[in-house]
Amino acid sequence: MTARTRSIRPLPVLSAGAGPPLVLLGGFALAPTAYRPTVEALSRSWSVTVPDLFPLRPLREAWSAERICARLRAALDARRLDGITLVSHSFGTALALQVVARDPGRFEALVVASSSGLSERLGMLSSASVGFRVLGAASPGAVWAFARNALAQPISLLRAGSWAFFRDADETLRRVAASGVPVHVLWAADDSFVRRVDGERFAAKMGASFHVASDPSRARPVDHGWVYRHPALFERTLAAALAASAPDRLPSSTKSGARPVPAASLGAAGRNGSC
Questions:
Q1: Would you give per-residue pLDDT tens digits along the chain (275 residues)?
Q2: How far is 177 from 206, CA to CA, in rounded Å?
Q3: CA dihedral defined by 135, 159, 96, 193, rounded to 10 degrees?
Q4: Phi, psi for residue 152 in degrees, rounded to 5
Q5: CA nearest neighbour of 177 among 245, 101, 69, 105
Q6: What is the rounded CA–CA span in Å between residue 47 and residue 17?
Q7: What whole-number distance in Å separates Cα of residue 22 and Cα of residue 248?
Q8: Cα-based torsion angle of the residue sequence 243, 246, 248, 251 in order, rounded to the nearest 10 degrees
Q9: C-alpha distance from residue 147 to each of 34, 139, 142, 143 (Å)
Q10: Mind listing the domains of the chain with CATH numbers?
Q11: Residues 192, 224 contacting (CB under 8 angstroms)
């Protein structure tokens, strides 16, 4: 832990597994518990950490990206995480880009799921709508996680959405693209929230690989919430993207079919977690 982060309260996390570190930054207004099935699936190969980007806070402490990023760094320091594969879903990409731009040496790769980087206002407008349309496309766990946050801290959600919409991301994108950290963009084949063309443009701007996740055998479409709705598909797509660029960095258990950590034995969950 650095001297600077020693006095900063780390974000609470959901964690499980043993192996190379993977940190997942989730979607707008979603608590880590919304991603529990995904954490369980990934835990067969990775040491997974999902920070709570919307922790409950006193009314006098407003949500701010700067504070959340500082608390995220404190959480990574507290858990002594380096050589991290950083995965972001939707809104979480805005914060992921910030932390990679600030400290690229800490990360092995950045994997962006269903996000255009939130760098264009039109794309952001579509992505921000995810939070308000989540009832029609999310898993029951995600619905509950969103509803709890919306009821408990609506002002914080407004501040977070406003920051993501109005921030100037161009310099951050340039710094990440020039950092040498490999970037991969994963896309849901049937994403109804963010246009695929926006994802492809983002990947081209970042010099990133672009991978489309689809599963013809499924009766339901692979939509924006696929990261937590279809954890096995997400795990396979993530492994394929990483293997295409750096197969030596893949955990050996990814190929050996190791069993996931049972949900009951997962570590600190949601706001009850600690770093």
A1: 455 545 789 999 999 999 999 999 999 888 899 999 999 999 999 999 999 999 876 556 788 999 999 999 999 999 999 999 999 999 999 999 999 999 999 999 999 999 988 644 444 444 444 444 444 555 666 666 677 777 777 788 888 888 887 788 889 999 999 999 999 999 999 998 888 999 999 999 999 999 999 887 766 789 999 999 999 999 999 999 999 877 666 776 555 444 444 443 343 433 333 22
A2: 5
A3: 30
A4: -80, -30
A5: 101
A6: 4
A7: 16
A8: -50
A9: 11, 12, 8, 6
A10: 13-272 (3.40.50.1820)
A11: yes
Beta strands in 5-164 (DSSP E): 13-16, 21-25, 47-51, 84-89, 107-113
Pair type for strands 47-51 and 13-16 = antiparallel
Closest CA to 160 of 230, 98, 85: 98
Task: Note the pTM of the prediction, 2 decimals.
Answer: 0.83
Distance CA 103, CA 119 (A): 20
CA-to-CA distance for 112 and 208, rounded, in angstroms? Answer: 10
AA letter at 33: T
